[in-house]
Amino acid sequence: MVLSGCLGILRRACIPQRYVLGVMGLLGMANAYIMRACLSIAITAMVSHPKTTSTYINEEECPASTSTNTTRVAVKGNFDWDEPTQGMILSAFYYGYIITHIPGGVLAQKFGGKYTFGLGIFSTAIVTLLTPVVADYLGSTGIIILRFLMGLGEGTTFPALSTLLAQWAPPLEKSRLSSMCFAGVQLGMIIATSLGGIIIQYDGWESVFYVFGTVGLVWFIIWCLICYSDPASHPFISDEEKSYLAETIGGVERDKDLAGTPWKILFTSWPVWALIIGETGHDWGLYTLITDLPKYMNDVMHFDIAENGLVSAIPYLTMWICSLLIGGLADWMLTRNIMTITPMRKLLASVGAIGPGAGAVLASYAGCDKLLVTIMFTIGMGLMGFCYASLRVNSLDLSPNYAGSIMAIVNGLSSVSGMITPYLIGVLTPNRSLREWRVVFWIMFAVLFFSNCVFVWFGSGEVQPWNDTRKRKTSLQNGKERHGADHEHSDGIAFDERKTP
To answer: What class has domain 17-49+79-235+265-467?
Structure first.
């Protein structure tokens, strides 16, 4: 009785449920990236850096603000992990992350995205809460295993969310809703870097895992109560909204008889491979900054832990705002026929690739000017937000029916960047110097530039022919009938009959 009354109130509230899902999707992605980034923030306080004394004075090296000589004061942490070990710890997440993308996409298409997405966040929250205990008792080995398990759980989130958006986002709102949800990445990084640094400063590094892990559990409970896989299963969606979604998307219920994912077609499609390569370059830049920007600000620029968190949050805040604005702008341009979809996706992807690469390189040449470095990273990451109305939504462009599987392939394979970049950076920056980091940022620029060239040349924003499941089913059925006819009429009559109109 109480439940039916609540449902009636929610139905009469006239809140479009696709926007409720968009907001909860945004908060879900924010929680995922907050918990993923906890270790990137906390590791600067967890690790005890040995004292390093320079044998020369070099204008390329930034002086520590707390010292007038060339000796750095050691950071007091609990763990003695060198740079390659830290890189392995930070990259362990992505070894698990890459494994569950395709299973996550298949499960979301088959059973719906609600629990596939929700359980991914839930498992991440549990692992986050366990991190301090595992670190204390099992050290680096335990953390590597735990981060691997976190990656396994979180690997389902992107394909599941893409499947949900395919059911809920009308064509002319696709960029806006997708950008809203995926902007949770930046929102999560803003919260993790700003609040995380303050929490660590005043209550120790362990607290950041307990606080954000608990928030993740609270989000999961709310998600289970108010969000659904498709409009048809939603108990308090309005009839008007359900009709609108049926007219614009082509149906409000998942196709439970959806033909099996055409894996061979996907893996031989040029637009899909262009998206994979473009996304790999984007992720190389994104993961370089997500996992290691706090380390750069700490080791090279010598911000303290609280300052580091606040300064590192500014680029993500700009990226978040840009990603939200550009999603609305993209939909506006499409509705007014200012640009067609393919050129628009390629233009936005190009800005989102060249901008952050150039910004990072220029930041490394800004030397020790903390303000200028922050401005360069802020501009670069702001422009990276353009990708959220291009690369991130492109799987929905190519195939609404198989968006989950495409996102699984794309985000899974592109996550190889996350496996490589933290460890590579650890190897390239043993002395944590500005000169070493400059090499890191030039590599980042090169990867972004060349991957974007591939996307611009081979990418597409149009629905692909193999998305039409009815044609594929008919084609497969006709093929089986012809195959049976060939066996039945082995004397050649069947060949003549097939030519009859």
So the answer is: mainly alpha
